[in-house]
Amino acid sequence: LAEGSQWQLSVQVFKSLLQKKITPTVVTVNSVLHALCRGSHHVAAQRLLGRMPSYSLTADLYSYTTVMSACTSVSCWETTCELLCSMISKEIDPDLYSINNMIGALANTPKWKEALHMFSNMENFRLAPDFVTHSVILAGRIQAMVQ
């Protein structure tokens, strides 16, 4: 149900579970988050992520990175940054994927220096840059030079 074309069905099934008073799990919500993001509904995914505590659930790394990735893909770098900060404040350690998302979100904006700063400080998260990290930084700088 999590495939992009099936996001509506995924949301319907989730609503049906709630109506039947079936308590969702983190995996269930993550599946719906994934479906919403694949269907380009990042705002709805953000709302659902924010509602997880009302279901007595705590968002995990996958919850955050799924929504961060969707926000990055539509150039919502502010939201990506807020999500990363929220994740860290809840003591969820970012992984390479979430840091790459944040760097990618910033690299193509006037905040590109913050992307370089994050790149330079990846060891604070006990992470080492990979091919994707370098590619995102370079692509962002090249695009900035062209503009």
Would you give an account of this structure?
The chain has 147 residues and is mostly helical. Helices cover 67% and strands 0% of the residues. It contains eight helices and no strands. It has helices at 7-19, 26-38, 42-51, 61-73, 77-89, 96-107, 112-120, 131-146. It is elongated. The mean pLDDT is 90.
How is the topology of this model organized?
Layout: H1 7-19, H2 26-38, H3 42-51, H4 61-73, H5 77-89, H6 96-107, H7 112-120, H8 131-146
Key terms for this structure?
single chain, mainly alpha, 8 helices, 67% helix
Query: N-to-C SSE series?
Result: HHHHHHHH
Total helical segments? 8
- Show unreliable segments: none
Largest sheet: none
Q: Give the terminus-to-terminus CA distance.
A: 40 Å
Radius of gyration: 16 Å
Structural class: mainly alpha
Q: How much helicity do the residues have?
A: 55-70%
Describe the global form: elongated
> What is the overall pLDDT average?
90
Record field, number of beta strands: 0
- β-strand amount: under 5%
In short:
The chain has helices at 7-19, 26-38, 42-51, 61-73, 77-89, 96-107, 112-120, 131-146. It is mostly helical and 147 residues long.
